[in-house]
Design goal:
Low-confidence stretches: none
Shape: globular
Oligomer: single chain
Structural class: mainly alpha
Order of helices and strands: HHHHHHHHH
Number of helices: 9
């Protein structure tokens, strides 16, 4: 029921947004909307189908990420081959850790994967929309890594995570209605800090390599690794919280 509830809520939000983007003919928003609809649909289907299907999806993501990273490393001619190989191995180690953690979360309780998706996508999407159209205040330290980030975007992302946390206690009852304050505060802080840290970490890696996106597989939205970057860092932390009974 939780998986179905999540998909209904997600499509109720995404499809009208995509329709608006089509009406105003904003190609950037159309591309982002289509990618989000496909991403949520594929992830939901894999979770609903069971552990085998989800593990197969994570394996496919690992292969795609490895190919994207290797291609990017070949582009970066200013870095020696040994350093490129080491960099590729370190990044892939982090990617594998994140994706294996997601499989571990599935083994404990697959509904918590829904929580991660909802928290991360609300953070990313709300931050993007507000930062893209209303963001004005630059953050010097962060802008050296990711030039388009704004204070308004980050604040909006935090509000987005709060909204997702409320949904996870109500319409998509991963946590249930009990302990709304304690659990809600914990998942909000963890999601906001580590989702944004993951995004910045991979932005730093791309800047060092000298590329804007890991690939153009998803058009203006980048590659597979661009789609999963925020989830890769939060997943091991979330798994630990689940494993030790904190969530």
């Amino acid at each position: 029921m939780v998986v179905l509830s999540f998909y209904i809520v997600a499509m109720t939000i995404l499809l009208p947004g995509l329709l608006v983007a089509l009406v105003i003919k904003n190609k950037e928003l159309i591309n982002r909307g289509v990618v989000l609809v496909l991403f949520v649909s594929v992830m939901t289907l894999a979770i609903w189908q069971g552990a085998g299907m989800f593990a197969a999806l994570m394996f496919s993501v690992t292969i795609a990420a490895a190919l994207e990273m290797w291609h990017c490393m070949q582009i970066s001619s200013s870095i020696g081959y040994d350093k490129r190989l080491l960099g590729w191995a370190l990044v892939m180690g982090l990617v594998v850790l994140g994706l294996v953690a997601m499989i571990g979360i599935f083994g404990i309780n697959k509904n918590h994967l829904i929580a991660i998706i909802l928290l991360v996508q609300f953070n990313d999407s709300v931050a993007y929309m507000i930062g893209r159209f209303l963001g004005k205040t630059r953050i010097p330290v962060i802008n050296k890594i990711s030039p388009n980030k704004t204070l308004e975007g980050y604040l909006a992302g935090f509000v987005g995570v709060i909204m997702a946390s409320v949904l996870l206690h109500t319409l998509v009852p991963v946590y249930g209605s009990e302990n709304l304050g304690v659990t809600g505060f914990l998942v909000t802080v963890v999601a906001f800090v580590f989702a944004n840290s993951g995004d910045l970490l991979f932005s730093f890696i791309k800047r060092k390599i000298g590329v804007k996106d890991f690939s153009r597989f998803l058009g203006n939205h980048g590659g597979i690794l661009d789609r999963f970057d925020s989830m890769i860092l939060i997943s091991p932390i979330y798994f630990a919280l689940l494993y030790f009974g904190i969530l």
